[in-house]
Amino acid sequence: MSTSSSLEALSQTMTGVLGDAILSQTIRLNELTVTVRADQWLTVARHLRDTLKFEQLIDLCGVDYSTYQGWAGRRFCVVVHLLSVIHNRRVRIKVFAEDDNQPLVDSVVSVWPVVNWFEREAFDLFGIVFNGHPDLRRILTDYGFVGHPFRKDFPISGNVEMRYDPELKRVIYEPVSILPREIVPRTIRPEHYGDTERHG
Fold this sequence. Notes:
Elements: H1 3-18, E1 22-28, E2 31-36, H2 41-50, E3 56-64, E4 76-84, E5 89-96, E6 104-106, H3 116-126, E7 129-131, E8 160-165, E9 170-175
């Protein structure tokens, strides 16, 4: 069976098992991407593991679509890559948070325990809250960090600087002292660069 027909068969199987929980399916670059409803995500995850045998979660990440060209949908998305070892197939699942101001998606730690730190990372970097997560706290940034650095509206220079103060013997936070500036690349070429004739 060819890759495309195998993906078509998997797409049909997904429709049969998940039904109206599926919002869309696309096959592109030999990959099946299935977008599912946020309010059914936990149920869908259990079906993916138990019925469709996607027993291994490979990756979970957040996406901020706010500056994506021509995009008119929800801003925050959770993307999950799954592997079925027994059937030797992969699938990408997308779940869009329904509220752009307070993105919330159910945690699937109870389905795939390995996702624990992935969800914490998406929370830390994008501010996506995973309902039901047993220990949702920052994992890459400092506890006093302000904002979520992978959001498209987060300032490039950040909001605060952190440094160790030897007199106070502790870490302190200060306003950013770096002045914003635009760097324009400059190319310097020798005087007759690109000439086709030799000059004597």
